[in-house]
Each structure stands twice: as structure tokens, then as C-alpha cells.
Amino acid sequence: MQLRSADQAKPSFTLEDYFVGRTRAWGMFVDRFGEVRRQFHVDIRGDIEDGRLILKEDFTYDDGERLTRTWRITPLGEGRYLGNADDVAGVAKGEVTGNCLRWSYDLDLAIGQRTWRVRLHDVMLLQDDHILLNRASMSKYGIALGEVIICFQKEAAPARNNASIGEHGERGANEQARIDNVTRSTVAA
């Protein structure tokens, strides 16, 4: 996939900023003939430990199969990353330019009773603070097998717990203050 002006695209993407906390994703594998073979959703939890991003991905496939993958990703600076996971052969390498992360790795993929080592080239594009799109080409021996297409949605940060704001949040507190001011003005008149 060729991208024009990714280095100028906004918002700028920082892997650890996006994935720390909780994220949900929905995706599918499309074979090289254009047929959707599998669909899935993923619950993701990201934490920083010893300067590394730890991503725990819990996959649930449309056929009921479940899989957990834990990525350990090291930021190298200047938008470059290295990562590994138990089913990744060697080291994954990635680089961010603007709103785009290019991420490549070899994955040991269980297919029935066998395991295939496949090559993945991901292109992730940050759309806004919450939405990240991913298109990954999958190949074996240089022969295209298909694509994995995923949409990530970052959960919003939990609301502040502030006793003075109460159960209606900041907007409710501001509205209550306005009502109190009107009430005081009415009583004083």
C-alpha cells in the first residue's frame, strides 16, 4: 500500500499513547480471492512496564475459537519500534510516519493441526484520538494469501471522580451553579 504525505498527516501517531488503556477491535481475514474467511473481535489492554508497551490481545473468532497474544513492544525513539510475542518468529519491526505505522513480522499461524509461518505487513492509520484502521497483507514464500482488515476503537478515559461535581458530571455541576445563581437572584428580589 502506497501512502502519500503520511509524514504530514494528522493526528500524529504514537503507538504507546494510543494503546495504553483499553481498546476494542473488529476485523476479518479476506483471502486472495476476495472471500471473507473469518471474522473476529479483540479486547486489548495496554500497559507500560519498564519502558515497554505490553499489549494483551484477547481474540474471539466467529466460530467460537479464542486466542490470546501478548505483545512486548520497545520504543527505540524517532518513531521506531521493536516487538515480540510468543507466536512471532524473531522480532517485529515498525516505524511511524505522521499518522501511519508500518509494522512487519513473521507469525506462526495455527491452521488445523499444522502451523504455517506467514509474513505480515501491517499499515495502521490513525483517524482521530479513538479510531485506528489497520490493513495487513499476509503472504507465505512471497505468495499473497490474503489480508487482515481491522478497526480499533480506543475506550474513552474514565470520567474524573470528583465529589464536588456529583453524579451529573462537570456539565451538571455548571448547570446546577447557574440554577443556584438564578434562585439567589430571585429570592433577593
Structure commentary:
The protein is mostly beta strands. It folds into two domains: 140 residues, Calycin beta-barrel core domain (Lipocalin, Beta Barrel), CATH 2.40.128; 28 residues, no CATH class. It has two helices and ten strands. It is globular.
What is the average per-residue confidence, as pLDDT, rounded to a whole number?
Answer: 85
Helix content: 10-25%
If classified by CATH, what would the architecture of the largest domain be? Beta Barrel
What is the number of helical segments per DSSP (H or I, 4+ residues)? 2
Percent of residues in β-strands: over 45%
Radius of gyration: 22 Å
Domain count: 2
Strand order of the largest sheet: 1-2-3-4-5-6-7-8-9-10
Give a quick precis of the structure:
The chain has two helices and ten strands, in the order H-E-E-E-E-E-E-E-E-E-E-H. It has 189 residues and is mostly beta strands. The chain is globular.
Layout of helices and strands:
Layout: H1 15-19, E1 21-31, E2 36-49, E3 52-61, E4 66-77, E5 80-84, E6 88-97, E7 100-111, E8 114-126, E9 131-140, E10 143-154, H2 169-188
Antiparallel strand pairs: 1-2, 1-10, 2-3, 3-4, 4-5, 5-6, 6-7, 7-8, 8-9, 9-10
Attribute tags:
10-stranded antiparallel beta barrel, Lipocalin, 189 residues, disordered C terminus, mainly beta, 13% helix
